Amino acid sequence: MFVGHALFAFAVAALVADWRGWERRPALLVGAVAGAFATIPDLDVAYALVGLLEWRALGGDLGAPAAFWGASRVVHRSVTHSLVVGAVAASAFGFLAVRVRSQSGRARVAHIAGLSILATLVGVALVWSGPLAAFVMALFAVGGIVVTRGTARLSRLAPSTVAIAALWGLWSHPWGDLLTGSPPDWLFPFGAPVLESRLVLHPDPTLHLLGAFAVELATVWFALAVGYRLTGRSILTSVDRRAAVGAVYGVAALAVTPPTLEVSYHFVFSILGVGLLCSVAPETASLVRPRSRLRSRVVPAFESTLEVALTALAAVTIALFAYLAVYLVAVPT
């Protein structure tokens, strides 16, 4: 889901910018900035490293993945996922996006205001939830500062645009967690009386997992479609026919334990492995037209990388639907 948060924020921001008449490059840039901000709330999983240290100290009885995610749940989706915190932090990042010029008092005042707002958020987290919450809030603030200052140095985006991109990225993030985990602390430091439980797509836990995985894949396809549209490329000409091999993965529904949110590692790693194998297999032809030897020699490395990624994604998508079809037909529920 980490990738999905960023890609969804990128796609919507870039698409809106394009709809507003922006040039392609600035539209892609503001999308990238929004996507970067959308990843910042998940910096709270850094605390999960403590779980790995405890796991190592105790001799590894639980297993590394269980220890990692067990520790992450202590603070994950808490203070950094709040819509209130996101709105306040976005204004701070807007202040910090003001570019520094020689003897610019305006920039200094803006930066002091931004840092003061972020320091206040850390203080609120300390008072309301304790030192651990303050620690992850500080990580959140530092991550936002890095994205903000990097954007100010490398682009000409206005501070107000950076603030809006930050707001969208931070606000879009919590909604992606509704299918795969406990709901976030929506209105920290206030109460959150709505959406207090996970959204269930299907009472069968395996079908729920497959549905959540399909939503994630759809998000990736959406982002790629936006990126390809803004750069004038065609998706179909970039997908190799070897992606169809992903259909073989359907037999996995008969051979392995049905996955659930609680136990999904074997499914996720194996289906992603199918995509990887299909993408590195010998090249055949695209779904639209065959590739000539001349074209294969002149296609830049970036284009080749995109083709590999799209072929892998298509293979994973085909594998998912093949698995779903076999599961529905042949696996008793």
From TrEMBL:
Key word rRNA-binding present: no
Alphabetized UniProt keyword annotations: Hydrolase, Membrane, Transmembrane, Transmembrane helix
One Gene Ontology term of the molecular function aspect: hydrolase activity
Stretches that traverse the bilayer: 79-97, 109-126, 132-150, 157-176, 207-231, 243-261, 267-288, 308-330
InterPro entries, per database record: YdjM-like
Signal peptide from the UniProt entry: none
Keyword Protease: no
Protein name: Hydrolase
